C-alpha cells in the first residue's frame, strides 16, 4: 500500500494537507485531511517532518490506541499519525480527519472526525504503508 500526503498551505502555526491511500494496484481507497505543524527546519516538537518517502508501520499505545509510526525520519523520532483536532494536539506528528473546519473559533482550520478517520485508515492499512510527503 502507498499513501501520498500533499501539503496544501501553511502559516506560522500549522500546515494543512490531504492524505490519499492507494491499494497496490493503484486504486484510491480513501482520502482524508491532514494537520501538521509548520515547516520550521525540522525542529523537534515544533516542525512538520521533511518532504520525502517513509515507511509507516502500525503501532498501539494507551493514549492513541491503534495508530501509525513514521519510521526513519531524519533527525527525529516518534513521529506518529494519530487522532486529534488542533495544531495544539501536535508535537511534530500528523493528524488525520474528515474535513478542515475551524472547530474552536481560533480562525484556523482544524480536522474533524479524527477518531473515525483514524479507525478507517487503520482498517484499510492494518500493517502500514509507504508514505510520500510532497
General description of the model:
- The model has no long low-confidence stretch (mean pLDDT 97).
- An 8-stranded mixed β-barrel has the order 1-2-3-7-6-5-4-10. A two-stranded antiparallel ribbon has the order 8-9.
- The chain is mostly beta strands.
- It is 8% helix and 45% strand.
- The longest helix has 11 residues.
- A hairpin with a 5-residue loop joins strand 2 and strand 3.
- It has 1 helix and 10 strands, in the order βββββββββαβ.
- The protein is globular, with a radius of gyration of 13 Å.
Mean pLDDT: 97
Q: From N to C, what is the helix and strand string?
A: EEEEEEEEEHE
Largest sheet: 8 strands, mixed, barrel
Distance between the termini: 17 Å
- Bin the helical content: under 10%
Spatial sequence of strands, sheet with the most strands: 1-2-3-7-6-5-4-10
Coarse structural class: mainly beta
Shape: globular
Q: In percent, how much strand structure appears in the residues? A: 35-45%
Total number of helices: 1
Q: Please state the oligomeric state of the protein chains shown.
A: single chain
Amino acid at each position: 500500500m502507498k499513501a501520498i500526503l500533499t501539503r496544501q498551505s501553511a502559516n506560522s502555526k500549522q500546515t494543512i494537507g490531504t492524505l490519499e491511500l492507494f491499494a497496490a494496484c493503484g486504486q484510491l481507497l480513501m482520502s482524508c485531511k491532514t494537520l501538521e505543524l509548520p515547516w520550521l527546519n525540522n525542529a523537534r516538537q515544533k516542525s512538520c517532518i521533511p518532504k520525502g518517502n517513509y515507511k509507516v508501520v502500525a503501532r498501539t499505545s494507551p493514549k492513541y490506541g491503534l495508530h501509525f509510526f513514521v519510521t526513519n525520519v531524519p533527525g527525529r523520532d516518534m513521529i506518529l499519525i494519530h487522532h486529534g483536532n488542533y495544531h495544539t494536539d501536535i508535537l511534530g506528528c500528523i493528524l488525520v480527519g474528515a474535513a478542515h473546519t475551524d472547530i474552536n473559533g481560533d480562525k484556523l482550520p482544524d480536522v474533524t472526525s479524527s477518531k473515525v478517520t483514524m479507525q478507517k485508515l487503520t482498517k484499510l492499512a492494518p500493517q502500514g504503508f509507504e508514505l510520500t510527503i510532497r
